[in-house]
């Protein structure tokens, strides 16, 4: 049974050591992520699954203690996915950001595992993956930390340059996530999301699959695009 979820963005710039002198620009997003994680802990889950977009070689499951690093971004900073011995393959960047958030908030509410999700995964397969997460726990109380960004085409200086469709897509995504509306999340256009560089679409739709029938309420905690990329924080409980 899904009892709570936190939706957070996953730019490495969320980590102050990576952002360096620009770290303050993400202060509001960071604070909102901490608030969303507090809601997860308050739900008293039996397990937490951290999921986020991953390249093909990094897709699939990760055990508690899986190592991550921000060395690829020029920072000598390592993380682990929850407490435990560091073992197994390295986390993709999205899950490394999730692991950093858990370390920063001193997560101890439940055991942790990770799931790297392919960005091109079709909505129906995302929904099925979410339902599998719920079904694999033998009735335990499941919480999800869902990482992913909105479009990267909000301004001419954005990574994907400017696309006039980006603002409307992000508004729809933010509304659906803030309302904890699985049907609206699943209705997000996968092809349009790909064209707009919205890395979070598939992960959000895994959440939507897991949340079907759970009757959760939602709250949008943060919605901005400081670098021309949509960053949303939402809490489902």
Question: Secondary-structure map with pairings?
Answer:
Elements: E1 2-8, H1 16-19, H2 27-42, E2 47-54, E3 60-62, E4 67-69, E5 78-80, H3 93-104, E6 112-118, H4 123-135, E7 142-147, H5 166-178, H6 182-186, H7 190-195, H8 201-211, E8 218-224, E9 231-236
Parallel strand pairs: 1-7, 2-6, 2-7
Antiparallel strand pairs: 1-9, 3-6, 4-5, 8-9
Helix pairs in contact: 4-8
Can you summarize this structure?
With 237 residues, the protein is of the alpha/beta class.
What's the alpha carbon Rg, rounded to whole Å?
Answer: 16 Å
The largest β sheet comes out as:
7 strands, mixed
Mean pLDDT: 96
Low-pLDDT stretches: none
Number of helices: 8
Sequence of strands across the biggest β-sheet: 3-6-2-7-1-9-8
CA-to-CA gap between the ends?
Answer: 12 Å
Question: Structural class per helix/strand content?
Answer: alpha/beta
Count of individual beta strands: 9
Query: Shape, please?
Result: globular
Report the sheet-strand fraction: 15-25%
Residue share in helices? 25-40%
The oligomeric status of these chains comes to single chain
| Secondary-structure element series | EHHEEEEHEHEHHHHEE
Walk me through the structure.
With 237 residues, the protein is α/β, with parallel strands linked by helices. Helices cover 34% and strands 21% of the residues. It is built from 8 helices and 9 strands. A 7-stranded mixed β-sheet has the order 3-6-2-7-1-9-8, with helices on both faces. Strand 8 (218-224) and strand 9 (231-236) form a beta hairpin. Helix 4 packs across helix 8. The radius of gyration is 16 Å and the shape is globular.
């Amino acid at each position: 049974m899904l009892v709570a979820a936190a939706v957070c963005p996953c730019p490495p710039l969320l980590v102050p050591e990576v952002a360096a002198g620009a770290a303050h620009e993400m202060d509001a997003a960071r604070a909102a992520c901490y608030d969303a994680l507090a809601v997860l802990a308050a739900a008293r889950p039996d397990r937490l699954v951290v999921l986020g977009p991953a390249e093909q070689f990094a897709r699939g499951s990760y055990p508690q203690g899986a190592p991550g690093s921000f060395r690829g971004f020029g920072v000598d900073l390592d993380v682990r996915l929850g407490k435990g011995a560091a073992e197994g393959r390295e986390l993709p960047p999205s899950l490394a950001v999730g692991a950093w958030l858990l370390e920063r908030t001193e997560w101890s509410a439940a055991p942790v595992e990770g799931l790297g999700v392919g960005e091109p995964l079709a909505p129906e397969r995302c929904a099925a993956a979410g339902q599998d997460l719920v079904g694999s726990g033998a009735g335990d109380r499941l919480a999800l930390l869902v990482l992913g960004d909105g479009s990267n085409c909000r301004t001419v200086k954005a990574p994907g340059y400017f696309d006039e469709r980006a603002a409307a897509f992000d508004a729809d995504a933010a509304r659906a996530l803030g309302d904890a509306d699985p049907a609206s999340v699943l209705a997000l256009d996968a092809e349009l999301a790909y064209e707009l560089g919205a890395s979070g679409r598939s992960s959000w739709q895994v959440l939507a699959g897991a949340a079907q029938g759970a009757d959760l309420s939602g709250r949008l905690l943060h919605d901005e695009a400081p670098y021309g990329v949509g960053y949303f924080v939402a809490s489902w409980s």
